Known about the structure:
This protein is of the alpha/beta class. The protein folds into 2 domains: 19-150 and 288-356, Rossmann fold, CATH 3.40.50.2300; 152-278, Rossmann fold. The protein is built from 11 helices and 14 strands. The strands form 3 sheets. The chain has a 7-stranded mixed beta sheet, sandwiched between helices. Strands 2-1-3-4-5 form a 5-stranded parallel beta sheet, with helices on both faces. The protein has a two-stranded antiparallel sheet with strand order 11-12. α1 (47-66) crosses α10 (309-326).
Amino acid sequence: MQSMSLTRRTFTRAAAGAAALAALPSVRAQGDRILLAQSAPFTGPAAQLGIQFHAGARLFFEQFNAQGGIQRRPVELVKMDDGYEPERCLENTRKLLAEDPLALFAYVGTPTSLAALPLATAARTPFFAPYTGAMALRQPFNRFAFHLRASYNDETGMIVRQLANLGLTKIAVFYQNDAYGKAGLDGVQLALAAHNARPVAMATVERNSVDVAAAVKTITAAAPDAIVQISAYKSCAAFIRQARAAGYGGTFFNVSFVGTQALADELGKDAAGVVVSQVVPSPYNGARPIAREFTEAVRKAGSDYQANFSSMEGYLAAKVMAEGLKRAGARPTRESLVAGLESLGSQQFGGFGITLSPTDHAASSFVELSMLTGDGRVRT
């Protein structure tokens, strides 16, 4: 299930290595397979987010299919590259919906998901586990949108509380100049307002850009105690390096969308002390059964897979989707999948708790903080 070339008549399959994913006849979702469709960045400055999220989901579905799938029908996840650009995502979504998938699955990003969700809603197609915590995708309630991860308000609330506990009150915000960055900024401002405070400085970077010099100058001039970053890994890494080169000695906090391992890899030894909020359990800590299950699956699968927070989230998204599919009947439809997911109620997935119901599609509010080290590790 690698990158696939899409036409109206067929999806060209790539060898996935698992017997249950062997080549199947070209049929639609209602035939001998269950089709899920994903648009995400697989190239460009945000590529690792899509690559790792997709890989984690693919890893779970390969295992699931090897055990029989849904009534001996395999789950097939097809993907298209949108480069983290809304217009490309919109066009991809039109093409993917034309193939009649059971659901749109694991889209990556706020601006891209905001472009795609109206199409999914119009087609009455479940839009499951987008890699974004934006409130605009959660409110007002949409019966076709299901969220696995905590919101950006949850993440920024945790960050601001931690800073307040440390007595750090001068907070600046570096954010991406689009719907994602503004969603994170809103969360920081809301959390600071609860402490009768507001950001001491704010500056932006354009999506898919690392032109951060002006933002560094604006924010460092305010001498904040800490800087909350709401962008992707390349721009955040560029900002951290340039701010430190300018003499800034405060702390950097990032939300989970940054791509934790990608940020650590980008920064190298300069990652030491950078804090990232997380919305899934750590794959580096075996205290929870889901972490042990996931890392063992990665170990068995070989070098094509990595254990990191992004791939862990993809794995969990696929695992929860599979439970919804099991409850959707022998021949799932979009409507029965919605009902199946809503029927999950409160459940534990190896120590990661979710709750879904007909009136609440935000499965989790789990957030914890992690810190990067200078040798590529992540501590929680």
